[in-house]
Amino acid sequence: PLHLLCFHGHGGTAERLCNQLSERFFSQVLQSSSSTSTSSSPGDVLEVTYRCMDGPMPEPSRRPEGRQWWRYDEGDQGDRPQDWAEMERAALKIAEECYNSETPYDGVLGFSQGAEMVHTLAVLKHRDDPRFSSRAAPKFGISLSGAVNPGHFESVGGGGPPRGLEGPRQGPDVKHRTSFPMLFIGDFFGDHWYSAERFKETMAMYADLARVEHRQAHIVPELSPSDASLVRRFLQRFSSGS
């Protein structure tokens, strides 16, 4: 089976995300798999296991047990990290989980701020960061209602250029796209947290992308049968049984 590592959103928890994925998302994807298995060989049936991990920092504004991957600037109302080192700390925690897991993770999935972490890994892999460039590194990503964090493209030591001015870019762009496969799932025009332009800019980073659009705003979505089949086909690419 495919083995995925999953990241919750800002103020969420690993347990909460895993419950949402089980009830709304993978139940429909795997049901799509079983419903087609009658006309397919046994090797075509998709199996998925997943583990959700908690972010390294507390974020109790929504629920006492809430966690976050980093704090946002502008009193948690901005887009960039309040402290770039917090983002680096989160990436290191994920790298340690990947290396210490007895079962290698085939891919990563994230919702909201957790999806920003998925794009972090794609950016770091594009830069040949050794933590995410070895055989133990995940081979694909799934982004639920999230986009890349602009802080990844700014100067590490100096804090980046003033807002609105272009600074040194160290990562993929429309001219130098990353080959890391990415499945985007979102309400790309009605998310309310991420703008349509930000989704567009993030998708432009990827040469190998698939897209599933819904109309459920900012949420771990329930998938229609056709959308569940699209997700299944994306995952099937990386399944050893396919």
Tell me the layout of helices and strands:
Blueprint: E1 2-7, H1 14-36, E2 48-53, E3 57-58, E4 67-68, H2 73-76, H3 84-100, E5 107-111, H4 113-126, E6 140-144, E7 182-186, H5 196-203, E8 209-213, H6 225-236
Parallel strand pairs: 1-2, 1-5, 5-6, 6-7, 7-8
Antiparallel strand pairs: 3-4
Helix pairs in contact: 1-6
Brief synopsis:
The protein has 242 residues and is of the alpha/beta class. The protein is 32% helix and 15% strand. The protein has helices at residues 14-36, 73-76, 84-100, 113-126, 196-203, 225-236; strands spanning 2-7, 48-53, 57-58, 67-68, 107-111, 140-144, 182-186, 209-213.
Care to describe what's here?
With 242 residues, the protein is of the alpha/beta class. It is 32% helix and 15% strand. It has six helices and eight strands. It has helices spanning 14-36, 73-76, 84-100, 113-126, 196-203, 225-236, and strands spanning 2-7, 48-53, 57-58, 67-68, 107-111, 140-144, 182-186, 209-213. A six-stranded parallel beta sheet has the order 2-1-5-6-7-8. It has a two-stranded antiparallel ribbon with strand order 3-4. Strand 1, helix 1 (14-36) and strand 2 (48-53) form a beta-alpha-beta unit. The longest helix has 23 residues, at 14-36. 39% of the residues are buried.
